[in-house]
Amino acid sequence: MNDTYECDGCGACCRTKLVDVFEEDLLREPRIGPQMQPLREPGLDGEIGYLNCLTNGACPFLGSENHCGIYPTRPVVCVLFPAGSEECQEARQTFGLSRLEPIVKPQP
Ligand code: SF4
Ligand code: SF4
């Protein structure tokens, strides 16, 4: 059985990852367009890439205590980002954080 992980809100992914923003994300959250710097021209299937990194490597929506300023309407890729994945672990390593450990389930 696969391990289960729970995001601890370290914010490392929001400081290191590119965010692929889709048209539906822009329509749902109009603040994304002006705040995230375009990485590439609109591509196939309506995909629009934006660079999640301006001057300090952090997403412009990342607020104090690692809160996402647009949490309810954040890009789908952020909603689906898997805690405990290798991407997550690499991001944590970048900031000297320990690996995210799987949740230990109580034995039945
Ligand atoms: S790097 Fe992993 S643990 Fe940290 S906020 Fe992102 S998903 Fe959560
Ligand atoms: S939109 Fe929110 S969840 Fe997505 S990278 Fe930015 S701060 Fe993180």
State the total count of DSSP E strands.
3
Share of helix among residues? 25-40%
Low-confidence stretches: none
Structural class: alpha+beta
Return the average pLDDT rounded to an integer: 83
> What's the total helix number?
5
Question: How far from one another are the termini?
Answer: 15 Å
Task: Please tell me about this protein's structure.
- The structure is a single chain.
- This protein has a domain at 18-80.
- Helices cover 27% and strands 10% of the residues.
- The chain has five helices and three strands, in the order αβααββαα.
- The chain has a three-stranded antiparallel β-sheet.
- A hairpin with an 8-residue loop joins β2 and β3.
- It is globular, with a radius of gyration of 15 Å.
- 19% of the residues are buried.
- The structure holds iron/sulfur cluster (SF4) (2 copies).
SSE map:
Layout: H1 12-16, E1 19-22, H2 23-28, H3 32-35, E2 37-38, E3 47-51, H4 76-80, H5 86-94
Antiparallel strand pairs: 1-3, 2-3
Residues 14, 19, 52, 59, 61-62, 68, 70, 74-75, 78 line the site of one iron/sulfur cluster.
List key phrases describing it.
108 residues; 5 helices; 27% helix
Q: What's a concise summary of this model?
A:
The protein is α+β, with helices and mostly antiparallel strands.
